[in-house]
Amino acid sequence: MDFILEGLVRALDLLLSGDEVTFSAVTATLQSSALAMIAALALGAPAGFCLGHFEFRGRRALRLAVDTALSFPTVVIGLIVYAFLTRRGPLGEWQMLFTVPGMAAGLALLALPIVIAHTAAGVEGLDRRLRLTALTLGAGPLRLALTTLREARFAVILALAMAFGRVASEVGIAMMVGGNIKWHTRTITTAIALETGKGQFAEGIALGIVLLAIALVVNLLLVLLRRRMA
């Protein structure tokens, strides 16, 4: 219990003193997570709508692939992204390896199946008369999609909350693609792994508390958003 109490005291000290190393890791975590969530929402919400709304050949196989991707090993995702972004890879000229945008790309791939699967489930659970009503009122394809996603907004918000939890707590992708570079791509999770490996349990616990606080704030904001939209 002593090292836990020490970690709590250390966490308060790091935050109140404005420790630059800690806030650098917090900044990298927030930047990469925000970019990943924006990309996952922009790509996943339309894809989830199409998967849950339309009937087409191969839909079940595609849904199975999306559901399987929910449990895809994160280290493999990091390896794939690393292979694409390395200098000898097809996207090497973009020079995104060991950068925050590079980490965000890998984290977006992690969050994308979550957003697609939950959005599709939310769309499938809607009343089928919604489509007929919207078409009767003269809604075009874009208006129909926006109306449907608005009705399935609670499923989308739930998907965002779950996706953020996976993204913010990810270690493998951040370590492989980001490189755990101090002041640049060292996130809270990679810093926790580093400090724990060095035997600095108090620092690890302190950073863990900071990560929990961030997750709590984000989820509270999503809850407030859901209540306002209701």
What does this protein structure show overall?
- By secondary structure, this protein is mainly α.
- 77% of the residues lie in helices and 0% in strands.
- It is built from 11 helices and no strands.
- The chain has helices at 2-16, 20-53, 59-69, 74-85, 100-124, 129-136, 141-151, 153-168, 172-178, 188-197, 201-229.
- α2 (20-53) packs parallel to α5 (100-124).
- It is globular.
- The protein starts with a helix and ends with a helix.
Quaternary organisation: single chain
Rounded radius of gyration (Å): 20 Å
Please describe the biggest sheet, giving its number of strands, its sense, and whether it closes into a barrel.
none
Tell me the β content. under 5%
Distance between the termini: 43 Å
What class, by secondary structure content? mainly alpha
The total strand number stands at: 0
Count up the helices.
11
Would you identify the regions where 5 or more consecutive residues have pLDDT less than 50? none
Proportion of helical residues: over 70%
Key phrases:
230 residues, 11 helices, globular
Task: Annotate the secondary structure layout.
Layout lengths: L1 H15 L3 H34 L5 H11 L4 H12 L14 H25 L4 H8 L4 H11 L1 H16 L3 H7 L9 H10 L3 H29 L1
